[in-house]
Design goal:
By secondary structure, the chain is an alpha+beta fold. The chain has one helix and 17 strands. Strands 1-2-3-5-10-11-12-8 form an eight-stranded antiparallel β-sheet, with no helix packed on it. Strands 4, 7, 13, 16 and 17 form a five-stranded mixed β-sheet that branches. The longest helix has 40 residues. The N terminus is likely disordered.
Length: 219
């Protein structure tokens, strides 16, 4: 009887060992899939703390003023954040700066839900699509405003692509983390350029990036 029980226990142990091994293998494959997807978007990817480098282009998150005061009810407070782009590649690239969008983590480390829409349209300005030559860099800063939707809801909002807007709701005091997301898949674009009218612009940088997080404090 003891030999029989020992045999049964051995079989059960082997069974659960195989199941555990299978589970670990699935997790490893999932992580590898994520890495493969990342490589598909980024031919050459490097990151160290606050600098992201993709195919010779460096991206750094900028938050010039990291402490922001909550406005009094009926008033608003402004802040700026953005990205520094450095072209260390061998050829010039256009960047469609209006395609940068913020992503914010709240003081608990949760991603805030972003809403948005289109309340107007505007033509593309030359400053929206700068041509960055090899060795050049530029700082792109966007304006954001904290204001009260009602007495219980503080929001932060800003302008998006050519007449659109984005907004985050229910902002509370504390430390936040912010980064910018950018994606462009077209080398050539036909754009309504002021004052030229519809114009085809070539040599846009193609890629998908998420810049490193930077802190800001709301008090």
């Amino acid at each position: 009887m003891r030999k029989f029980l020992a045999t049964v226990l051995a079989v059960v142990s082997v069974f659960f060992g195989i199941m555990a091994s299978s589970y670990v293998s699935r997790n490893i494959m999932t992580n590898e899939d994520v890495k493969i997807e990342r490589v598909a978007h980024m031919t050459s990817f490097e990151s160290n703390n606050n600098v992201l480098k993709v195919d010779g282009i460096q991206f750094i998150t900028l938050v010039p003023k990291q402490v922001v005061d909550i406005p009094q009810y009926g008033e608003e407070t402004s802040m700026q954040f953005g990205v520094r782009i450095m072209n260390q590649a061998s050829i010039p690239y256009h960047f469609d700066l209006q395609r940068f969008y913020p992503e914010i983590l709240d003081p608990q480390g949760q991603i805030l839900q972003m809403d948005g829409g289109q309340n107007a349209t505007r033509e593309v300005e030359k400053s929206d699509i700068p041509l960055l030559m090899p060795g050049e860099s530029l700082d792109f800063l966007m304006d954001a405003k904290f204001n009260w939707y009602n007495k219980k809801c503080l929001s932060v909002s800003g302008n998006a692509t050519y007449g659109g807007f984005w907004i985050f709701w229910n902002i509370m005091p504390g430390r936040y983390h912010i980064r910018l997301k950018y994606e462009n898949q077209l080398v050539k674009k036909k754009m309504l350029i002021s004052p030229k009218g519809w114009t085809e612009i070539d040599q846009f940088w193609i890629g998908k990036v998420i810049t490193p997080f930077e802190n800001f404090y709301l008090r």
